[in-house]
Design goal:
Elements (H helix, E strand, L loop, with lengths): L2 E5 L2 E4 L4 E8 L8 E6 L6 E6 L6 E3 L7 E6 L4 E6 L8 E8 L13 E4 L3 E6 L1
Parallel strand pairs: 2-11
Antiparallel strand pairs: 1-3, 3-8, 4-5, 4-9, 5-6, 7-8, 9-10, 9-11
Amino acid sequence: QVQLVESGGGLVQAGGSLRLSCAASGRTFSSYAMAWFRQAPGKEREFVAAISWSGGVTNYVDSVKGRCTISRDKAKNSVYLQMNSLKPDDTAVYYCAAESKPYGWGSVNEDEYVYWGRGTQVTVSS
């Protein structure tokens, strides 16, 4: 059974940092692009960051550029999101996802992702 399990969320003050982790099990995702999405209350889920299958290409939504870094550890079958200078607008449930096709660059379109975690809550207080 394939599982993506996120962790690392929590309550943090504005300006603080969090490091989200996503551990995959049931299969290896070393040949698949992976991404983070988020969904704030009352809003649609949105793309946050993606990393290519090789790890050499990353992509971010404009609102987190310069504040967040996505990375992966193929040996651990895991992907991470380091978030700095957090803002109240970053408050959301953060989801990890893996693309359905191998050797991708990391799409911003959630329809390209077939495996999803259950999410981890990030709350940023002002």
